[in-house]
Design a protein that fits this description.
- With 370 residues, the protein is of the alpha+beta class.
- The protein has a domain of 198 residues: 2-Layer Sandwich (Ribosomal Protein S8, Chain: A, domain 1).
- The protein has 11 helices and 13 strands.
- The strands form 3 sheets. It has a 7-stranded mixed sheet with strand order 2-3-4-11-5-6-7.
- It starts with 9 loop residues before the first strand and ends in a 7-residue tail after the last strand.
Length: 370
């Protein structure tokens, strides 16, 4: 699942130790105890799922953005209904993980409570990095709602992805997440950047002194490259699937900027998110929906695997099954590239964490083969 190529040295540590360290780092910069633990848990869960682009590598980014006054750790999101009737979560500069979770929960509450339609929409704006948004969509699906989470609106701060046919970053990696109740193995969730890769994978490769697969990024001259340093030296990310990724990324920017853009605020990260929830029981009962989902998903699982694959997996369920296997097999121990671990330690020291660093073991195992 990793996009990191050539990582030779990893560290192994227990996930609970990493959760505690992450929470302490966030607390040191001003997050409440609950918010600090929520952010840390979100990042560690991403690492456990194999999604290092949105894992604890982000701790140093959050510290740096705080130091640049791009978000306010002590802030809390506020829910209100606008004069035009829409429900809005104003993050008030808080962390995006906290704000989007509040928005999704409120949106699902609204969908389940609306006896006439069973549909709700909530806008989230004015917050920091939103983390791995598939987690929030899945939370809605677990409560019986088809849930959409669409992020964008920050192109003025994050010109990362070239438009189709372009050679310069113009758009953020504007992500989409969609989750629907599945079968007995859980919800089905897709979560993807509209760039050919998430910006976090480029950051992870740089910190890990690794390279990336071909076809993801270009250098400042528009030439294909696998070196993350070429990206940070004026390059950019290609759109996913060419014109399709560009179209999705552009649409997300239009949705998040034109509908949710806070024109009264010009500073900060400017991250906005649109959340839509649909009560699936307005169409079919839960047992009928699960039966139909199982029919489709079992057909996918029975598909013969292509060369290089052991089986066909289901998005969302794959990540959750990976976590279960990891915790069962390794007793809660996880691996991180040594470069990312060093970056976390540096971030902890920079904010004055006084607790001893967790004990780690160095493991010479290629992350791309984990």
């Amino acid at each position: 699942m990793s996009k990191l190529v050539g990582v030779e040295l990893n560290v192994a540590l227990h996930h609970s130790d990493l959760r505690s360290l992450g929470a302490e780092i966030m607390s040191k910069i001003g997050c409440s105890g609950a918010a600090a633990q929520e952010i840390s848990d979100h990042l560690v869960d991403a690492d456990l799922s194999g999604i290092h682009s949105h894992g604890t590598m982000r701790l140093s980014q959050y510290v740096s953005q705080y130091q640049q006054k791009l978000w306010t750790p002590s802030a809390s999101p506020r829910i209100f209904q606008s004069q035009l009737g829409s429900w809005i979560v104003d993050g008030q500069d808080c962390h995006g993980i906290t704000a989007v979770r509040v928005g999704v929960r409120h949106c699902v509450d609204q969908a389940l409570e609306r006896k006439s339609t069973g549909i709700a929409c909530v806008g989230v704006r004015n917050c920091g990095h939103t983390g791995r948004i598939g987690v929030f969509a899945e939370e809605g699906a677990k409560r019986g709602c088809l849930t959409f989470v669409i992020g964008g609106g920050s192109r003025k701060s994050w010109r990362q992805v070239a438009p189709y046919g372009g050679a310069k970053g113009m758009l953020p990696t504007n992500p989409y997440a969609i989750s629907i109740p599945g079968d007995e193995r859980g919800a089905v969730t897709i979560d993807f950047a509209t760039g050919a890769t998430a910006g976090g994978w480029v950051m992870a490769a740089k910190k890990s002194r690794a390279t990336l697969p071909a076809g993801l990024i270009i250098d400042r001259n528009g030439r294909s490259t696998t070196n993350p340093n070429d990206y940070t030296s004026g390059g950019c990310i290609l759109p996913a699937a060419g014109s399709k990724g560009y179209g999705l990324g552009l649409m997300a920017e239009l949705i998040a900027y034109t509908m949710l853009g806070n024109v009264q605020k010009e500073s900060g990260l400017g991250l906005n998110t649109m959340v839509i929830a649909i009560d699936t029981t307005r169409f079919r009962s839960n047992p009928d929906l699960m039966t139909a989902s199982k029919e489709v998903l079992d057909e996918m699982r029975r598909c013969p695997p292509a060369p290089g694959f052991s089986k066909v997996e289901i998005p969302g369920q794959r990540e959750n099954e990976r976590v279960e296997r990891l915790l069962a097999k390794d007793g809660g121990h996880m691996k991180l590239p040594q470069g990312i671990w060093s970056d976390i330690v540096d971030a902890a020291k920079s904010v004055g964490v006084e607790s001893p660093m967790p004990r780690v073991e160095f493991v010479e195992t290629c992350l791309s083969k984990m």
